[in-house]
Amino acid sequence: MNLTKLCDELRIFAQERDWEQFHTPKNLASALIVEASELLEHFQWLKTGELAELDERKQNEIRHELADVLMYLVRLADKLDVDLMAAASEKLEHNRIKYPTEKVRGDSRKYSEY
After folding, report:
1. For the segment 72-107, what is each residue's pLDDT rounded down to a tens digit?
2. Superfamily of domain 3-82 in the CATH hierarchy
3. Domain chopping of the chain, boundaries
4. Rounded to whole angstroms, how far apart are CA atoms 91 and 113?
């Protein structure tokens, strides 16, 4: 499934339940943050959060939280008429300029710190 198909399915899902009235950009952005926090909760207190630290149950829960984050992000982009793939491509190019390889290789500092 691609993002366009997912967007269409999410729109239909909301329409069938009369949830469009609740899917305002503000509400969707709030829901996105809540789901991202739920994702983060699975990594709280782990040493690194690497796959080796996650049992099958935890991996499945993380998978579902990632799906929730994606779905709210896609719904928000739909409401704001944002092409996520184009926006991501544009942002990646912007980051290539902001973080030139020769200056930042192996350095995790923010662009304003080097």
Report:
1. 999 999 999 999 999 999 999 999 999 999 989 999
2. MazG-like (1.10.287.1080)
3. 3-82, 84-114
4. 20
